[in-house]
Write a structure and sequence with these properties.
Blueprint (H helix, E strand, L loop, with lengths): L8 E4 L8 H9 L4 E4 L6 H7 L1 H10 L3 E6 L13 H20 L4 E4 L11 H21 L3 E5 L10 H8 L5 E6 L8 H8 L3 E5 L20 H10 L6 E3 L17 H11 L3
Parallel strand pairs: 1-2, 1-8, 2-3, 3-4, 4-5, 5-6, 6-7
Helix pairs in contact: 2-3, 2-4, 4-5, 7-8
Length: about 270
């Protein structure tokens, strides 16, 4: 059994939508140890494929370490696409990004199981295509010493329930899970951990209202943080405590929240007392 106190503090670089040295310095000064390289701003990842060591050096020069890469998502990028051309292009692009992540020293690569919306009539076919892609990509990541982690998603997306996530990962030996704590709209996050916690290797930590994803700081929304944390501890979680929140935040309950990396540090310290 692990303890949240032992999980290093990490943050997605969507924090300020930047990988500039001054932002990295502020993140480090706040007590953060690891970062997740994200697809924000959008053109960045195209350059990251060409120069992964340049960006890795920028991160390490700031005293930080690369934990993970979040593969991009959006129109024309879909590992569950019914379009052969989109599917092929996405798989090729993701192979290049996974290779770059390896060269940058990442440990984990996070991937969405598919693009939304997902029509009911297409769901089963897209689930199977997603599983094929995840098998291919997870084996490639493993060959480079990385772990591929598929993320739970909200709304009509694939992997929007505990049961569907279980179906997607079943039988794909090299695949693991990124648990996003603000994506399960119709299911209990504590149940998610209890059911799938053995395969969770990384987190996207934020809070919400179970109506839609909100990406707020924990304790602002309605999550059962004690239940989530103690569930992860019981499952012997060994990853990082990685915030996927941006400042300023999205408007939530009539308020826009501003915070610093130091506030993330203090937020984790509060959660450690639950």
């Amino acid at each position: 059994m692990t303890n949240i106190k032992d999980w290093p503090l990490a943050v997605s670089l969507c924090y300020k939508h930047s990988i500039e040295p001054d932002v990295l310095a502020e993140i480090k000064a706040g007590g953060v140890e690891y970062v997740e390289i994200s697809s924000i701003p959008d053109p960045f990842l195209e350059d990251f494929v060409r120069r992964p060591k340049f960006y890795a050096d920028r991160i390490t020069d700031a005293g930080l370490k690369v934990w993970s890469l979040h593969l991009p998502f959006g129109i024309g990028i879909d590992i569950a696409s019914l379009s052969h051309s989109v599917l092929t292009q996405t798989r090729e692009y993701f192979h290049a990004l996974i290779k770059a992540a390896s060269e940058a020293g990442a440990k984990v690569v996070v991937v969405h199981p598919g693009l939304e919306p997902v029509l009911d009539c297409d769901r089963e076919a897209r689930l199977q295509i997603s599983r094929e892609s995840l098998t291919i990509l997870s084996e490639y990541a493993d060959s480079l010493g990385l772990t591929l982690a598929v993320e739970d998603l909200p709304r009509s997306c694939l992997c929007n329930t505990v049961e569907e996530m279980a179906r997607v990962v079943d039988g794909i030996d090299k695949l693991r899970i990124c648990f996003d704590t603000n994506h399960m709209l119709n299911h209990d996050n504590v149940k998610f951990v209890e059911t799938l916690g053995d395969r969770i290797v990384t987190l996207h930590v934020s809070d919400y209202d179970f109506v839609d994803e909100r990406h707020q700081l924990p304790l602002v929304g309605d999550n059962d943080w004690a239940g989530i944390i103690h569930g992860l501890e019981k499952k012997d979680y060994h990853g990082v405590w990685l915030y996927e929140t941006s400042t300023p935040s999205l408007e939530f309950r009539g308020k826009v929240n501003h915070f610093t990396a130091k506030d993330l540090y203090e937020n984790k310290k509060t959660l450690e007392k639950l």
